[in-house]
Design brief:
Elements (H helix, E strand, L loop, with lengths): L16 E4 L6 H12 L2 E4 H7 L3 E5 L4 E4 L1 H14 L2 E5 L12 E6 L2 H10 L4 H12 L2 H9 L5 E5 L3 H21 L5
Parallel strand pairs: 1-5, 1-6, 2-5, 6-7
Antiparallel strand pairs: 3-4
This protein binds adenosine-5'-diphosphate.
Length: 185
C-alpha cells in the first residue's frame, strides 16, 4: 500500500461538525443551537469523558479530568461513522481529521471570556490560563495545524447577534452538504 495515501472520509449523507474554541467562547451554547436548527446530534466531549470515564484521573489544580485521547477516539469512532454529529470540545488536534466536514473555531474578546468563566465560578488560575490561551490563539493554531483550511470557519462569538449569525451560517452549510450528498446510500 502507498504510505502517502491520506485516509479519506467515508461517504456520509449528513455532515459531522466540530465546534472548538477556548472555554467561554460559546461552544456549548452554539452547538446546542446548531443541533436544533440543523437536526444534528450533539456530542459534548467533556460530558462523555465524565460519563464514560474516558480519563486518567482528576487534576485537582485545574478542576478537570486528565483526558485519555485514545479512549475518547475509540468511544466516538462508531458514532462519527454514521454522520450528522455536532461535536464540541476545547481541544481539537487529537480527533482524526477524516471525521469532520466542517471545523468551527469560535473566538471571543478577552473580557468576555473572563466574565463568562468568572460567572461559571472557575478558580482564578483556571480563568487566567484560559484567557491567556485565547489571547495566544492556542486553539486556533491547533486547528490550523490539524485541519485543511478549506474546512475551517473562524467566527467571532462576542454577542448574541454573533451567535445567531454563526448558527445560521453553520445550518446553511449542513443544508448544502445534505443536498450534495443525498445520493449516498
Ligand atoms: P463554552 O462551551 O465555550 O465554554 P458556553 O457556551 O458555555 O461556552 O458559554 C459560556 C457563557 O457565555 C454562557 O452563559 C453563554 O450563554 C454565554 N455566551 C456564549 N457565547 C455568547 C455570545 N456569542 N454572546 C453572548 N453570550 C454568550
Amino acid at each position: 500500500m502507498n504510505s502517502n495515501v491520506i485516509p479519506t472520509s467515508p461517504p456520509r449523507r449528513s455532515p459531522n461538525i466540530l465546534i472548538t474554541g477556548t472555554p467561554g467562547t460559546g461552544k456549548t451554547t452554539t452547538s446546542e443551537m446548531v443541533a436544533l436548527a440543523a437536526g444534528l446530534e450533539k456530542v459534548t466531549v467533556g460530558d462523555l469523558v465524565k460519563e464514560r470515564s474516558l480519563h486518567d484521573g482528576y487534576n485537582e489544580d485545574f478542576d478537570t479530568y486528565w483526558l485519555n485521547e485514545d479512549k475518547v477516539v475509540d468511544e466516538m469512532e462508531s458514532m462519527m461513522a454514521a454522520g450528522g454529529i455536532c461535536v464540541d470540545f476545547h481541544t481539537c488536534g487529537f480527533f482524526p481529521e477524516r471525521w469532520f466536514d466542517l471545523v468551527v473555531v469560535l473566538r471571543a474578546d478577552t473580557k468576555n471570556v473572563y466574565d463568562r468563566l468568572e460567572g461559571r465560578g472557575y478558580k482564578a488560575n483556571k480563568i487566567n490560563e484560559n484567557v491567556e490561551s485565547e489571547i495566544m490563539q492556542v486553539v486556533l493554531d491547533e486547528a490550523l495545524e490539524s485541519y485543511q483550511e478549506d474546512v475551517m470557519l473562524v467566527l467571532d462569538s462576542n454577542t448574541v447577534d454573533d451567535m445567531e449569525t454563526n448558527v445560521e451560517k453553520i445550518a446553511v452549510f449542513v443544508e448544502r452538504f445534505r443536498e450534495e450528498h443525498q445520493h449516498i446510500q
